[in-house]
Structure formats: C-alpha cells, structure tokens
Design a protein that fits this description.
With 546 residues, the protein is an all-alpha fold. Helix content is 73%, strand content 0%. The protein contains 17 helices and no strands. The longest helix has 41 residues. The radius of gyration is 24 Å and the shape is globular. The protein starts with 8 loop residues before the first helix and ends in a 31-residue tail after the last helix. 53% of the residues are buried. About 1% of the residues have low confidence.
Length: 546
C-alpha cells in the first residue's frame, strides 16, 4: 500500500533510476577491462571471472532477504543503508591492491548494498508515482539498467585506456553521495512489522551459493570425473556434490516456506506466487536473458581484448553497437508498438539473439578481425532490448500492487542468479575446452619436446589460463622454451582459444533456444490492453498456449 505520491515524482524517478544504473554498471565495466584488472591486481582472467560471478551471486542469494529486511525497516531507509554499504564497497574496490581486497569491496560489500537497494526501487516507484504514470516510470528504471549496459563498456574502456579502471568506482562513490543527498525527496512506504526467518534466509544463501560455486569451479574440477590432480570426493568431482546438495537445500527452502504459510507463520517468500503462470513465465525469461547476456559479455570481450589484443577502449567501441541497439529496442518498441504481443516480441527477441550468437560462432576464425562482431552485436542488442521492453511490465502486472515488492525481489533474484550462473557456466565451459584442446594439441605436436609436453600436462591440468599471444611468448621465454617448440605452443594456444570461444558461444545459443520453450507462459496481450475472448470459446487469447 502506498502513502501518497511525491510532488516532484519525475525527479524522484530519476533518483531511483540512478540507483538502478549503478547496480548494472559494474559488471559491464569489468567485462571490457578484465585483462587490465587481472594484471593490475595480480590475478588471472579466472580470478576476475570469480569476482564478477561472486558479485552477482551475493546479490542473487541476498535479494529475497534484502527485500524482507526493507519491508521491516522501511524502503527508503533500506535504500539509504544499501547506498552507504555500496559506496563503501566502491571505495575499497577503487583502492584494491590485490584480488582478496577486490572481492571484499566489489563482490561482497557492493553485492550486499545492491541486495537492499534493488528490491526497494519497485516499492518506492509505486509510492512516489501515480497509478497512471507507473508503467512509464518502471520503463525508465529498466532503461537506466540498459543505459548502464550501453555506457559501461565505453566508459570502462576509455578510463582503462587513458587513466585507470579504478576511477569508475571513485565516480560511483560520488554518485552515491549525490543520491543520498536527494533521498529526502522520496516518499517512503511505511515499515511492515514482521519476522525474518533466519533458517530460510540461510537456506537460500547456502543453496544458491553451492550451486553457483560448483558451476564456477567445474572448469578446473570437472563436472563428474575429477581433473588430473584435482580434488575429488568419493571418486567424483566436488562440482556434482555442490550442485546436488545445493539443489536439495533449495528444495528444503521451498518446502519450509510452504510449511510456514500453512502453520500461520511468516515465510521469507510467498511461494503461492510461483503458481502464477504469467509471473513464473516472466521470471524464467528474465533468468534466460541474463544468463545469455552474461555469457556473451564474458566471451566477446575476451575475443577482442585477449585474442585480438585490442585496448579496453577499442573493446568498448566494438561492443557499442550492441548497447545502442539494446537501448533503441528497449525504449522504441513500447513507444512505437504499445499494444504489441509480449509473447511475440519476446520470441522474436530470442530468435534475434540466436542469430547474433550464430554469426559470432561462424565469424570467429584465425583470420578474423574486430569488424566481425559488428552485425552480431546489432542482432544481440535488438534481441536483449526486445526482452527488456516487455519483461518488467509482464512480471509487475501479474500480481496486484500489494505484492509488487515481493515480485521485485523475485525478479532481481532471477536476473542476478541468471547473470551469476551465466558467467560461471560459460566461463567454465570456455576454460575446460581450452584446457582439453591445449593439452591434446601439445601432446600431439612433434615440434614440442616430450619433456616440455610432460611439464605442461602437469602444471596446466587444473586449467589453462586464457592469455594473449604476447603474454604467452613472455611466459615461454621466462620458462626457457624458445624456437620451434615455443612457436608450436603459441600456434596450439591460438587455435585452442578460438575453439574454446566457439564452444562457449554455442552453449549461449543453446540456452537462448531452450528459453523459447518457456515463452508459452508469457501473455499475448500487452498489460492493460482490453481482453478479446476467442470466438466460440470463453477463454482469452492469453490462455491459448501453443
């Protein structure tokens, strides 16, 4: 329930949109600056991948709990407390000398802050904007996230090339201070007395955390069969144990929520919402969109910055067509076709994403240059923008206003879990493919001495780092490997990198195709459009599930 609307609702929406912008900016900046960040803090691409994954994982695991806490202490207060924590994390990240400090500032503190901020935004929009303007307000907030995806690569690339990626996080601290100063203009929603079920909160954190961490480590540990020299539990890889136990814990979490509801106690999340077909359809599409998006934004920058050895700025410029197309579709489709069928738009968006990824897979070859990504980026951007233009309205309109905050928590959980699993899954597939291809290529290459091949097999069995040709030449020289042996290893690595990128992108395309099977739960009518019963039947077109 809302307490009224702010007189300057337009300004308030801009403040809330700025918060959404910050939450999305980090990952898009880091994706184009991975190689530079890894070198600067003394880690590898896998280390930065871990930081990216843990950031979204912390948000995903805490989003439901953060939404519950926000309801208990008041949404505006939760928003403000989250900003303070987020700002502190940004400052620590800007000063991080190594990977552990980067993980503390970015992955942990910023993730905790975001888990308080993002669920509050949905409720605060409702309390500050009249019913007639809420659809546009939610669209503006969603567009702010799309703008962060657009601005992030170019901003991160420019600062990384001419100054330092650290200035992005310094800038975030400044933006946090500005938002805090403007927070008084936001009309609050009153706190809702309630009880936080600690057992449920811990179960959701542990269950989701185990699943994503298991997927993250699968590239080094193997999925079922342990890698040579890698850890094992009862003869199999820890990955399968983590994923399996995590799924059991999540089953227990859902069962506990139902039990709490049946016994008249307060659950962490109302699982009856998950029986809403439209809501679950929207959440599934959010999950799929961000899984594919995270996978693409992990692999394409690697091709540009590591394989082609472009600067961070050059990488950002090549990704810019995706960002422009994304914003154009996210804003343009609702404006030009307000009554368009959400189901049709989302299906066309998924097809566009599949085409874009398919063109990337076909275009990445030894003679490829940066121009090969232009057309695929446009298709990917149009597809992602098409989904962004519909999904927010689909999920929010699936329930009444009293449940909008819970929907916001579930929506943010789905998006961040998708982003976390996307980065982890695609990253693990890429590293596993690279490792297998490099080791077999070295073993089968007669130009590589047996002693060198044996040493490589021993040292790289747990995972081959994704490095540029220049970095590999330097490492081989330091190890005393020169001449034809070094040239052969460099050639094997170059071929293996392309193979790994193709496989990882192919998995992204398969995920987008699989998402098509869930579109039957998306309504055919746009939210708010008049219902038109099917001739001769008492059902609306939304009930016709092909």
């Amino acid at each position: 329930m809302t307490t009224g609307t702010a007189r300057n609702s337009g300004f308030v929406v801009m403040v809330l949109a700025a918060g959404q912008f910050l939450m999305t900016l980090d990952s898009s900046v880091m994706n184009v600056s991975m190689a530079t960040v890894a070198e600067d803090v003394g880690t590898t691409i896998t280390g930065v991948q871990t930081a990216i994954t843990l950031y979204t994982l912390v948000m995903a695991t805490l989003m439901i709990t953060g939404g519950k806490i926000g309801g208990m202490i008041g949404r505006r207060r939760a928003f403000g407390v989250g900003l303070v924590i987020y700002g502190a994390g940004s400052l620590i990240t800007a000063l991080a000398p190594n990977l552990p400090v980067l993980l503390l500032g970015w992955s942990l503190l910023e993730g905790i802050g975001a888990a308080l901020i993002m669920p509050a935004i949905v409720s605060l929009v409702a309390s500050n904007v009249g019913a007639e303007g809420r659809t546009a307000a939610y669209g503006l907030v969603a567009a702010a996230g799309a703008m962060a995806v657009a601005v992030g690569p170019l901003l991160g690339g420019t600062l990384t090339t001419f100054a330092s990626w650290r200035w992005v996080f310094v800038g975030e601290v400044v933006v946090v201070v500005v938002i805090l100063l403007a927070l008084r203009t936001v009309v609050d929603t009153p706190p809702t007395p309630g009880h936080l079920d600690v057992i449920s909160a811990l179960a959701s954190i542990i269950g989701l955390g185990m699943i994503v961490f298991g997927v993250l480590r699968s590239g080094e540990w193997g999925w079922v069969r342990p890698t040579p020299g890698g850890p094992e539990i009862l003869g199999v890889s820890p990955t399968i144990w983590l994923v399996g136990v995590g799924m059991v814990v999540m089953y227990g979490f859902v069962h506990r929520q139902a039990h709490l509801t049946e016994t008249g106690r307060e659950p962490l999340v109302d699982v009856s919402l998950l029986r809403n077909r439209q809501l679950t359809g929207g959440l599934t599409m959010f999950f799929a969109q961000f899984t594919v998006q995270a996978g693409v934004f992990f692999t394409v920058p690697l091709f540009l910055s590591v394989v082609l050895e472009l600067s961070a700025l050059g990488t950002g410029v090549r990704i810019l067509p995706l960002s422009i197309a994304l914003i154009a579709a996210a804003i343009g489709i609702p404006k030009l076709w307000p009554q368009a069928s959400p189901r049709r738009v989302i299906r066309l968006g998924l097809f566009s994403m599949v085409i874009g990824v398919g063109l990337l897979v076909a275009g990445i070859d030894p003679g490829a240059n940066a121009a090969v990504v232009l057309i695929p980026m446009l298709f990917l951007g149009l597809g992602l923008g098409a989904l962004s233009s519909q999904l927010g309205a689909v999920t929010v309109s699936a329930v009444d206003d009293d449940h909008s905050t819970e929907v916001g928590g579930l929506q943010n959980t789905a998006t961040n879990l998708g982003a976390s699993l996307g980065t982890a899954l695609i990253g693990s597939v890429l590293i596993a493919t690279l490792t297998s291809s490099v080791l077999s290529g070295i073993d089968d290459n007669p130009a590589v001495p047996a002693s060198v091949a044996e040493q490589a097999t021993t040292e790289l069995a747990s995972g081959v780092p994704f490095v540029s040709t220049t970095q590999l030449h330097e490492s081989l020289a330091e190890a005393g490997v020169t001449g034809s042996a070094a040239d052969a290893i460099v050639e094997v690595n170059a071929d293996s990198r392309l193979m790994a990128l193709r496989v990882a992108l192919s998995v992204s395309a398969l995920l987008a195709i699989a998402a098509l099977f869930g579109t039957g739960r998306i309504p055919q009518r746009a939210p708010g459009a008049p219902s038109t019963p099917t001739a001769g039947k008492g059902r609306s077109d939304d009930d016709q599930d092909p």
